[in-house]
Predict the structure.
Amino acid sequence: MSPKQKKPASPFRRVVVKLSGEALAGSDKTGINPEILAAVADEIAHVINMGIEVAVVIGAGNIFRGAMGEALGIDRVTGDHMGMLATVMNSLALKTALKRAGVQSRVMTSIDMKEVAEPYVIERALKHLESGRVVIAAGGTGHPFFTTDTAASLRAVELGADAVFKATRVDGVYTGDPEKDSNARRIDSISFLDVIKNQLRVMDLTAVSLCMENGISIVVFNLFMKGSLGKILSGEKIGTIIS
């Protein structure tokens, strides 16, 4: 931690925030909504000002999805590579928004593209985090057949994060789909094994298993409830903790 950073008044020291590409699109479904992008940057800026180190992994569903590749007759490997490139576009957009919010960040890619971003190297990423910069880890894992959820869990393990914060449209894990079932209730905490046993669609099971094996909690929350990320990091009971 650099001398300029505040000591975090939080049980968390370093976290990975996982955003879906669709979240950046909002109701538009595709592309990037500038208001949502700015709101996400403000939330992250608030956390950085708390003295907590933040890495971000963003999906690409707002730009390219596997189903689109199938419709075009594109094979899975090529489609996954296209999705990895799309995550870089989202990451560069977030970097710009963070700069406007007064936060330094670095886009680091698992695929070599030095003219666009830094290569993802664990030691270099750790130095950025310790210096108060946000690390935006783009390009997924760098390999096909793995989701950006798995990439987020992998980066959390590599960087020694305390938790993965999975941003969704709802404020946690529910007993049913809260958008369809009015009787669905939010679960405050749940075990990794129960998530896997019941195949809850929180994150893909590879990502959940990776966090379970390495003792990294997953916090499911609604990023678009203003201030929610900072409140959770301050110890408030918001969202669902998987541990």
